[in-house]
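Possible regression after last week's pipeline update?

I re-ran a chain I had predicted before the update to compare outputs. Posting the input and the new output here so someone can diff against the archived version. Not blocking, just want to make sure nothing changed silently.
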Amino acid sequence: MATSAFAYEAQTQSGQSLAGTIEAASAAAALEQLTGLGLRVLTVAAAEPASPKMRRTLGTEDFLLFNQQLAHLTAAGLPVEYGLRLIAADVGRGKMAAAANDVAADLERGLPLGEAFALHAHRFPPLYSRIVEAGVKAGNLPGLLFNLGRHLELVARLRKNLWRILAYPCVVFTALMGVVLIMSVYVLPQFREIFKDFRTTLPMLTELLLMLGQYMPAIILGIFILLLLVLATWIILVVSRKTALFVDWFILPMPLIGRVIRLSLLARWCDALKLGVESGIDLPKAFGLAGSAVGSPRLAAEGSELAAAMSQGQSLLDPRRMRLIPPAVPAAIELGSRTGDLPSTLGTLALMYEQQAEHRLRFLPTILTPIFLIILSVTVGITVLAMFLPLVKLIQSVSGE
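New output (post-update):
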């Protein structure tokens, strides 16, 4: 659904004036969002077109830098609004400086931290305001920000590794398909005419390659349309801020890549749960805080099931159909609760899953690279055979064999 910018004037619960812009599908939706933030709305109207540079979402590298700097400054004990001003001053200009200054301005007007980030949600990744709010509730905002930073860095390295692994084979494979198309359309048909003169037939492999060449334009068009559909779907998910659902249902089930993401999410979830317990939040509420901090709907739902079971006095060791949370996690939580050393247990789990994710990420190239090289070698071999088998058969026919 398309969104527009709406300018608003409002008051906080303490009576302080507040003005700014918010992204929403309609004026009514903007009013509902502002009211949900606890504001007394005075006016809401369509905003004048703003500078595109000021409204764009922070890029991955910019956001990683922003999150890391904010985590370090808050860990040093500086007020968040002052830390944001320092980030803006350090950057000087651009999207990151504008975002930091705008959030700091809202904080200086008295808006709570989570709500200030929520008003500028279009500039940050989905659920970032909820992560910030969860960090405030846990009393350890730097811990959750560092937690998020480690996960995003791992995802960025995963993306770079996949690109490095896939780039060369994909380029070579695309060039090879172009050669196959040229051979099938312009070269191999000449063999067919020659073989007709010698009253013999082309080898089966060559015939298959010729058939592939006839359908190759349609195949290329289909692949192009599929890529456009995937790109359009991804843009819709980004605009509607539903990328977490896409990751949960399509990326996590993948055998190699999904396993790395799943382990990283588990490490973040256990770490956030530990921070909540250490801050004095009871365990069922800490499950909800961890689910908000991680941002995975499926992981949050499974955490809610564990919280509900604990609230009802049930044992976490009972068999449950958990797809993301392995049985070892409820067992360790149960044991840690009984021994009174739950934060240490959760910290150990977080470290274990983080190390497993890092190990699988380093191991990924040793698996994928040979697979793509084998596919490439087989394709090249078949193409070469399809080209030379007619010559061999023609020579045999001429020699009388």
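Follow-up from reviewer: compared with the archived run. Residues 278 and 343 are 6 Å apart (CA to CA). Marking as no regression found.
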